[in-house]
Amino acid sequence: MNNWTLAKRASTMNPSVIREILKVTEKPGIISLAGGLPSPKTFPIEAFKSAANKVLLQDGASSLQYAASEGYAPLREFIAQQLPWDVSPDQVLITTGSQQGLDLVGKIMLDEGSRLLVETPTYLGALQAFSPQQPEVVGVDSDEHGMIPADLERKVGTGAQKARLIYLLPNFQNPTGRTMDDVRRQAVVERLAQLGVPFLEDNPYGDLWYDEEPAAPLTARNPEGGLYLGSFSKVLAPGLRLGYIVAPKAIYPKLLQAKQAADLHTPSFNQRMVAEVIKDGFLDRHVPTIRAMYKKQRNAMLAALEQHFAGLDVQWTRPIGGMFLWIRMPQGIDTVKMLPAAVERNVAYVPGSAFYAANPDHRTMRLSYVTASEEQIHIAIKALADTVRATLAQQ
Amino acid sequence: MNNWTLAKRASTMNPSVIREILKVTEKPGIISLAGGLPSPKTFPIEAFKSAANKVLLQDGASSLQYAASEGYAPLREFIAQQLPWDVSPDQVLITTGSQQGLDLVGKIMLDEGSRLLVETPTYLGALQAFSPQQPEVVGVDSDEHGMIPADLERKVGTGAQKARLIYLLPNFQNPTGRTMDDVRRQAVVERLAQLGVPFLEDNPYGDLWYDEEPAAPLTARNPEGGLYLGSFSKVLAPGLRLGYIVAPKAIYPKLLQAKQAADLHTPSFNQRMVAEVIKDGFLDRHVPTIRAMYKKQRNAMLAALEQHFAGLDVQWTRPIGGMFLWIRMPQGIDTVKMLPAAVERNVAYVPGSAFYAANPDHRTMRLSYVTASEEQIHIAIKALADTVRATLAQQ
């Protein structure tokens, strides 16, 4: 292939660590706490079947034809209406999953070397989506309430190095499961407005709260100050790839042009099918059933951790929603190195180091409690604790 | 919005000319020859209905779940098998329409300022898809058989300015409708191999031939020398957004990583639905019906042009397949300026200037013969000729 000169950025595109790990964990019998796969029990297959038939019967030609890059109007209206601040459908751009939202925002906001602030740790897929633009990614220190405003101020930079964008996942963050509280949200939004840095608020899990609804989104507090990403992946089905961006009207046209260049539009059929499923309050009935199920599984994981990790120097988060929980293992454990031993014992996780922009904490790992059943969770957490004890004993 | 600093590339993202024109042409009663919309009569709605039901019944959970970025294995196998050269399914990457293929190839192949060779004129959507990477786009002279090898050699450049990639649409090109003949294909492929420039072969219309099958693809002649883009948009339905890239094995991993970062994967449900529709030779029965229909419409347009433009100094292409035909109007006509007068007479087209990397020929226009019926085509071409005559008479 000596005739091919690739773009410089291609050398920074590396296989996803999670992806490579998931390949290892495809052995039969393993209980994977690694992936972020919603439980297929939550997929409303019958509702999709009726919707597919109805859409093809009543609107077959349009659902199979090229369509506007903005997205299907009734779906944009539904989204604008259900968001808890004043949003016009003109501000809603339908994307091919909210992952595409990250790609489009990177394209219009980031030059090579532009400073991008992220939480510590942060969502790996966002780091990958932004990497083609080769930004300077700077992690901001975070505690259990989210990003720390004082460190944000230290990292924001000045002049040409002033941060272009800050990426935040306030609800049940991937990977840590933590949630920004109301006070912290307000402090961060106000500080960003003073500093003049727009935010990108990513909220794929917001509806999956188990105890009480989280505080209002950042974007609701300053709609002109940032961009908001939402998704149907966690409340309906990820395999349809349906997400959206909400943008200030002055920014929207650039995102729209990036969208059009990227894939013309999100599949018309999928947009209509989802609009058909949700139109009569379906989500108000459906989402509580998902919450109830995942809450039990979260509780099962917390109980299993209490039981099986007793006596070990281990900390974990207690997420009030979402899909993930974050663990810090005892001194002497490197979760990358320990993974093969865990897979031997039929349990898989994602090592935490993949989620850091720099200076990873090698003792951390991410566990998902949504894919495995309560019983499987207990078995897997016991296997994980056994792995940790065996690893420590060998030292 | 004074807090927002956008990426430099955002200033080069402009609304699609075609898109803006199509908005103007949405007035009732207009016959649009502008868009590249396949006739909805060709959409196999019943087949999709059965397939949707079957997929949701037999494979509901998987069809709605996250999936591998490479695409659905049976679909990749089908594609590899039906291509007329030796392709492994491992070389096939499913994309969200072939437009996404352009975005991904741009990401891995083009740096800012990289030289990109294109035909004169070329597909506007490709120019848009590559524009985020800010390449130096250089048009190569072309005649009725396609790109001229001698001019290709003149434009290829040396050293850091040597072309990274050449973008070619050999079959029934968008916008001109022209087809590279066998001799020209062989000459261009050999010249590119000597020059050491990889090609990107875009073939969305290849199955839509009306007289005889076109010559073998460029990629079939040198599979290690380029990338190939294909699509289901023109033979099944564009609204499902299903395309694919075929890449040499050494290049594939970079495209895969770009795909994963862009939208994780193409919708699982759509891939399974299409795989279900096509699995038993459906396309062998279905595509000939599309060919027969579009051939009649092409013939109608050619006949209408002969009739209504008689006596005017007008040239047009005689496409042997695809969806478009290219016209050069008489001296004194600027097709951008004439468009409002044409819309007044209830006919719309796309001015040709949008399709040039530089130095547009303002006398040109693109007409589509696939969306309008034979009768509508006759009415529209008469209206267009009337517009031209009226415009010339005013001068």
Radius of gyration of chain A: 21 Å
Based on CA inertia axes, which overall geometry of chain A fits?
Answer: globular
Number of domains of chain A: 2
Beta-strand percent range of chain A: 5-15%
Q: Give, in order, the helices and strands of chain A.
A: HEHHEHEHEEEHEHEHEEHHHEEHEEEH
The CATH architecture of the largest domain in chain A: 3-Layer(aba) Sandwich
Q: What is the SS-derived class of chain A?
A: alpha/beta
The biggest beta sheet of chain A reads: 7 strands, mixed
**Total strand segments of chain A:** 15
- For CATH, the homologous superfamily of the largest domain in chain A is named as Type I PLP-dependent aspartate aminotransferase-like (Major domain)
Largest interface: A-B, 87 and 87 residues
- Helix tally of chain A equals 13
Kindly state the percentage of residues in helix of chain A.
40-55%
Describe the overall structure.
Two copies of one chain form a homodimer. Chain A is of the alpha/beta class and 395 residues long. Chain A folds into two domains: 8-43 and 284-393, Aspartate Aminotransferase, domain 1 (Alpha-Beta Complex); 63-282, Aspartate Aminotransferase, domain 2. Chain A is 41% helix and 14% strand. The first copy, chain A, contains 13 helices and 15 strands. In chain A, the strands form four sheets. A seven-stranded mixed sheet of chain A has the order 2-10-9-8-7-3-4, with helices on both faces. A four-stranded antiparallel sheet of chain A has the order 11-12-15-14. Chain A has a two-stranded parallel ribbon with strand order 1-13. In chain A, a hairpin with a 7-residue loop joins strand 11 (315-316) and strand 12. At the A-B interface, helix 2, helix 4, helix 5, helix 9 and helix 10 of A face helix 2, helix 4, helix 5, helix 9 and helix 10 of B.
